Amino acid sequence: MKPLYNEEVDKDDLLLQGAINSGIVPPGCRVGGAIVQGISVAGGDPCSQCDVKRNLCGGRPKIEDQPVTNPTGVDAQQQIRQSLNDSTVARQQQRKLTIMQLNRMIKEKK
Q: CA-CA distance, 61 to 54, in Å (whole number)?
């Protein structure tokens, strides 16, 4: 699996095959499945920022100088960053709770 295919697409890129079968990207798409999936899960259009020549892939037109947005108009990259920040904060909170519980258990043992 590659981020971008110059020639033939790998047959084992199941994420790309799934995106093609779902109609997210055209059958001639040359972008790696992980990238396509990441953009589409965030609500973006993988074709909107792609630099592959459309005569090779048959993709939708490239949208110049606009952020990748989801259907509600939210910047998809910002949404991904916020999601990562939220999960980081949640992990930090969980660590604090775990440490507090461990400290309480240690005190009870004494």
A: 7
Query: What is the structure's pLDDT at 76?
Result: 67
Assigned domain for 80 exists: yes
| pTM: predicted TM-score of the whole model, two decimal places | 0.53
Residue ranges, the chain, pLDDT below 50: none
105 assigned to some structural domain = yes
Asked whether residue 2 is assigned to any structural domain, the reply reads: no
Instruction: At 4, give phi and psi (nearest 5°).
Output: -150, 135
What the block records as the tokens of 105 is 């258990």
Domain region containing 60: 14-109
Q: What pLDDT is attached to residue 69? A: 58
Given its phi and psi angles, is residue 43 left (phi above 0), alpha (psi -120 to 50 degrees) or beta?
left
Q: How far apart are CA 87 and CA 104, in angstroms?
A: 26
